[in-house]
Amino acid sequence: MSKHGIFISSVAATTISLSALAGDYDSSLRGSIKIDGSSTVYPITEAVAEEFAEVCPRVRVTVGISGTGGGFKRFSVGETDISDASRPIKSKEYDKAVENGVDFIEIPVAYDGLSIVVNKSNHWVDQLTVDDLKKIFLDGSPVKTWKDVRSSWPAVPIAIYSPGTDSGTFDYFKEVVAGKTGSIRSDMSVSEDDNVLVRGVAGDEGGIGFFGCAYYFENKDKLKVVPIVNPELEKAITPTAVTIENGTYAPFSRPLFIYVSKKSAERPEVEAFVRFYFEQGPELAEEVGYVRLPKEIYARALNNFVQGKTGTHYLTEAGEKIHGPLTKVYN
Questions:
Q1: Domain that residue 93 falls in
Q2: Backbone φ and ψ of 295, nearest 5°
Q3: How many domains are there within the chain?
């Protein structure tokens, strides 16, 4: 694996379709697979693990939720086989993996939208702009009530519920709202468990929070999702499977990933699990509330896995972050 970017292994280039994966799995396979990372990706990976247990019952798959950053900390020192991530790997995390000789294969598995939610009884908020979110969430903001955001809104105290600062969801939100130099206020209720955030907002009239859309889709009866104004369209867009996939729910739609240790992938039980993930993952992702990727993205990812392409598509050789839609960045 090179300093940054993609190193293509010596395996001959091939083109393999997802349909070619379907087939029997060796039920006699034994071993254990350690997975940790994003709580957002957890529902997909856990669903895949449960289904995989039906075909390979002697393989023990454990899936943790220490957050994207926490997962990469373990992965980059070789403690885990697969890392769930709700954002691409960062330069420092990449460098740590290189330093420890951990080559990895980067695999996108689904689309997610980051949903902004408020309490069901909140009748005044019908949409928010990124500027509104800056007023609410930025460090040093004097905003304490909803009236401070817009004068026509009631003076109900704002209570903020946020994913843990080690999560990819927090990083993504911070990048959009605070940018590279800003920071998010610290007087928030924070948890790595999205279910805790759901309960917090649902039980607080002035509550506002954010997390992956799958958790909103699961809790529509408890929360109110807020349409976000797309800066380019100048139109408020609600997160749905369609608006997330077509990119109109901007700037809060994103791809989700698993990172597979190349060394681990050489073990038959890990190779079988990842192959099963490709086969069953798209449908299971939808079942747990996410949006499946375009077929060509899964095909590219599968070929990268088969060919043993290691590294990341999201950093330049100089370590600079690469931005852009998945269909352009991931190839």
A1: 6-110+255-329
A2: -60, -35
A3: 2
